[in-house]
Amino acid sequence: MGRVMLLFICSLIFTIVPSGLAHSWSEGSPDWEAFASQYRRLAADEKFDLAERLWNSKYAEMEQYVQTLPDQHKEAWTRLDMYGSTNNLEETRWEEGLLTFLEVTSSDNPYPVITEKLEHFSDRSLSSVPLDDIEKEWNMIRPVVMNFVDKAKVQEADQALQELSIVDSVTGREHFSGKIIELVQVKSQGDWNAFLLTVLFIGGAILVTLLYVGAINYRESSKNRHTMKSSHS
């Protein structure tokens, strides 16, 4: 019986292993991170024709990839794709929202990617970047992070940006930047809480198993001692 309980604990631990690990073993999945890096490099070097050709060559594959995702991610892609659909090359050359979407949704652990994006955006919002550019960047990041962070916190950031659009001030930018950082902090706290719960659950299961095995062994030892005494009497 003790062995059965031990096998149960082992199977429990393997069940809790993140599904993303299995996803990382899947073959043939597109390397969207490499694609995003290549596209950004071409855009940064002002090789816009090559960047556009690269984008167009991969767009059908992007659409196919999106169809494999949950509905909320499909909706985010649609919003980003509509936002970026314009003939003005100066506005579309980065396609940053769609690139961020591909990087985040294809990552085995999307939260470090989101954290990096939000921290960078928070720093830019405190700089001398025009408010119009800040609003555009938020519109490109928001649909992606909405599916991974606390939606109430996203709405607080929306409110802070709306207030900033009325009066662009240093205080207002600091307030908005703080709301962006809160998105990262809330997720980090949630990860820590989930980790503690997992540790407590597994630790409790192991403790119960050890106590059970110990009780079985004690009962068997007592029975053996009783048998030996009976045979000597």
Fold blueprint:
Blueprint lengths: L1 H15 L2 H6 L7 H13 L3 H19 L4 H14 L4 H4 L3 H11 L3 H17 L4 H15 L5 H16 L3 H63 L1
Helix pairs in contact: 1-11, 3-4, 5-7, 5-9, 7-8, 7-9, 8-9, 8-11, 9-10, 10-11
Describe what you observe in this structure.
The chain is an all-alpha fold. Helix content is 83%, strand content 0%. It has 11 helices and no strands. The longest helix is centred in the last third of the chain and has 63 residues, at 170-232. The model is unreliable at 17-27, 87-93 and 192-196 (pLDDT under 50).
- Tell me the overall shape: elongated
Q: What structural category arises from helix and sheet content?
A: mainly alpha
Low-confidence stretches: 17-27, 87-93, 192-196
Percentage of residues in DSSP E strands: under 5%
The average pLDDT is 78
Which range best describes the helical content: under 10%, 10-25%, 25-40%, 40-55%, 55-70% or over 70%?
over 70%
Q: Give the N-to-C terminal Cα separation.
A: 32 Å
Evaluate the radius of gyration: 27 Å
Counted by DSSP, the helix tally is 11
Total beta strand runs: 0
Order of helices and strands: HHHHHHHHHHH
What does the largest sheet look like?
none
Features:
233 residues, mainly alpha, elongated
Describe this structure in a few short sentences.
By secondary structure, this protein is an all-alpha fold.
